[in-house]
Each structure stands twice: as C-alpha cells, then as structure tokens.
Prior knowledge:
Elements: H1 2-34, H2 49-54, H3 59-85, H4 90-102, H5 106-116, H6 118-134, H7 142-165, H8 168-200, H9 205-260
Amino acid sequence: MSNKKESTNLSRFFAGMVIVIALALGVFIYVVILGAKSNFDAEGHPITFLGIMHKGGFIVPILLGLLITVITISIERFITIQKAKGKGSIEIFVRKIKGMLASDQIDNAISECDKQQGSLANVMRSGLERYKMVKDDQTMDKETKEAAIQKELEEATALELPMLGKNLPILSTAASIGTLIGLIGTVFGMIRAFKALAAAGQPDTTALATGISEALVNTAVGIVASTLAIIFYNVFSTRIDSLTYSMDEAGFSIMQTLKSHK
C-alpha cells in the first residue's frame, strides 16, 4: 500500500512538472523563436508564418504549452503501456499459460510469467502462486479455494490498472479545452483586428486580412493540440482495455483449471 501511494505521488509530481515545464517552454518559444526580429519587417509587421503566430497574442504560449504537454504525456504513456505489455506477444503468452494450466504445469507457468514480465504477467503470477498454495490444501473446500484465488487476482489487477491509466485524464482534459482556448484567442484577436480597422478611419482589406489570419492562428494550434490529445487518448484507452481483457481471460483460465481439478 505504501509503494502504491508513493507511486501515485510520484506520478502527480511528474504530471505537475510536465505542465509547468511545458508552459515555460511555450513562453520561451513565443518570446525567443516566434518573436525573433527576423520574423518581422522594420515596421513590426510579420513577414513569416512564425511572425504571424507571434501576433496571435498571449494565448499562443498557453496553447504551445498545452501542445507540448500532450506530446510529452503521450510519449510517457506509450513507454509505460509498452512496458506493461511485457516481452513478446500477449496472445502467445496467454495461450502458453492456458496450455500449461491444462497439463498442470504450474511451476512452468510461473516461470513463463517471470520471462514475460509486464502487468499481465504480474497478475497471472499472483494468481498462479495462490493457486499453487491452495490446490492441494485439504483444509479448504473448492468454493473457499476459488474465493481465495479470485481475491488474489482482483487485488493484483487493482494494483496494475491504476498505473496503466495514470495521466490519461490530462489528455482527456487537453482534448476538451484545446479548441476552446484557441477560440478564446481567436475572439480576442478578431476584436483587436476590427478595433484597429475602426481606428484607421477607412477600410483596409490588407490589414483586416492580416489581423484575421493572426487571430485564426490560435484556433489552428488549439485544434492541433485537441486532435492529438483525442487520438492518443483513444489509442491508449484501447490498449489498456486489451490488457484488461487479457487479465480477465487469464484469470478465468486459472479458475476453470481449479474447478476441473479434483
């Protein structure tokens, strides 16, 4: 329980640091790279796309920070979930375990879990060890043995699944607010553009087009951040669901083996 709490605190610290550093990088990119003099003419008008992005206003570094956060968290989740899958194919591993259980090779199945590693192997190992302990215990009836193994599998799964789903809420939140933040920046930019146009006293289509393009930069960056967050969130959720199904399938195999054991 202590290790689980420490892991949760470490994950929260990591997520917090990622967000802070990403926002700092967003400000750095906005000021140093987008705001470089080479992106503007002598009168301060943007002459490159980076200059146009800089004219998007104070929302741009926030959106850049959001985009960097999405990319960083996605890389971290990809590495974590790949590690959780263990070595080799999950399908082949599950088939091996089923075959070993069918022939009552419990020790070999445990050794296979040690080779596979990963979250599924950890759950299977816990269940197999409990199965090995209670299988020939004459003081326990079959229902008690089944309950003991089921409890062990549930506890092992409960320890593994939170680790797989950590930081996914950040991606979900980014998917929801990315476009909205971009639209806020666009609205502010449009207000500035029409205000400047009104102050000029006469229609200036070039200035209006430039102002609108600067405002729409916010929406573009926000949509990119939201799109990436949605894609990665769905990909990782699907992989976690697949791992969860494999855990349930493997646990069911252990229970069926016990029921058939006399």
